[in-house]
Amino acid sequence: MNPTEAPTAMSRDEISKHVQEVLEEALGVDADEVTMEATLTGDLGAESIDFLDIVFRLEKCFSTPEKPFKIAQGELFSENLLNDPQFVQDGRITPKGLEELKVRMPHLDFATIESDPQVSRLPELFTVRSIVDFIQRKLAA
């Protein structure tokens, strides 16, 4: 690259590779386990404390001296949102809660839980692909 050229945007493949490395390090899993469809908790064994480490590592990985990469609390993972009785009742995500989650977390694919919005099924939505989608959207913003 010519030193006077501006750096090009990171490709989805590059983002995926970095996310895979972050998850391998944070969760102590092998590379072949970190597929795009792998769920963080079910397939990769992440626990709630791991989410903080993942966020920290993603911020570090995608920051540059010119542009720090910051992830606000609740931006990547649904922290505290599900404690609101408007959004959750009797262990189910309400229609209002589902709409709020879609607005706050457009990187998640809610199709799998729309017909049965049990709170207990929410972790199924946090996949390697959802993190790659999140990073790609955030870098493009």
Task: Give your account of this protein's structure.
The protein is mainly α. It folds into 2 domains: 78 residues, Non-ribosomal Peptide Synthetase Peptidyl Carrier Protein, Chain A (Orthogonal Bundle); 46 residues, no CATH class. The chain has 5 helices and 2 strands, in the order H-H-E-E-H-H-H. A two-stranded antiparallel ribbon has the order 1-2. Strand 1 and strand 2 form a beta hairpin. The N terminus is likely disordered.
Q: Helix- and strand-based class?
A: mainly alpha
Q: How would you sum up the global shape?
A: globular
CATH domain class name of the largest domain: Mainly Alpha
How would you write the strand order of the largest sheet? 1-2
Architecture of the largest domain in CATH? Orthogonal Bundle
Name its key features.
141 residues; mainly alpha; Non-ribosomal Peptide Synthetase Peptidyl Carrier Protein, Chain A; 2 domains; two-stranded antiparallel sheet; disordered N terminus
